[in-house]
């Protein structure tokens, strides 16, 4: 088994046997480890409490040196200033701040944290334009993290 597959298999087993609160890996992955669906619940005491979301993770054979493609999918895309209505997530660890030390679990926890810190449910200001013009793969977007430059 290739190193990337071993790493994914280990991460999958860890998430299935000992998932963080509110995180659940969905489905039988069989021989394909390249696509995962992860269910996520909004954290207690936040704007998203009681809501359920689904994340789609797609891995290349360069994982963990290459970040996974991660998007919200399904019928409930969270309304959040860093989540576009097509499910794309503006989060630096999914692109330029990715590190092989990160994992599916740490990505999920970062997304839960991002949602939990939200003070007002609203879409990004450029949502309509972005959704009309973006690539299907959010990793091909050159993100501008304007709220970090205060």
**Rg from C-alpha positions?**
15 Å
Number of domains: 1
CATH topology: Ubiquitin Conjugating Enzyme
Poorly predicted ranges (pLDDT <50, ≥5 residues)?
Answer: none
- Number-wise, the strands total 4
Oligomer: single chain
Explain this structure.
InterPro entries: Ub_conjugating_enzyme (IPR050113), UBC (IPR000608), UBQ-conjugating_enzyme/RWD (IPR016135). It holds the Pfam family UQ_con. This is Ubiquitin-conjugating enzyme E2 W-like isoform X1. Residues 3-150 form the UBC core domain. The chain has 150 residues and is α+β, with helices and mostly antiparallel strands. The chain has a single domain (3-135), classed as Ubiquitin Conjugating Enzyme (Roll), CATH 3.10.110.10. Helix content is 23%, strand content 15%. It is built from 3 helices and 4 strands. Strands 1-2-3-4 form a 4-stranded antiparallel sheet. It is globular. The protein starts with a helix and ends in a 17-residue tail after the last helix.
Task: Please provide a brief summary of the model.
With 150 residues, this protein is of the alpha+beta class.
Task: List the SSEs and their pairings.
Layout lengths: L2 H15 L5 E4 L8 E7 L10 E7 L10 E5 L30 H13 L10 H7 L17
Antiparallel strand pairs: 1-2, 2-3, 3-4
Keywords:
150 residues; globular; alpha+beta; four-stranded antiparallel β-sheet; 15% strand; Ubiquitin Conjugating Enzyme; 4 strands
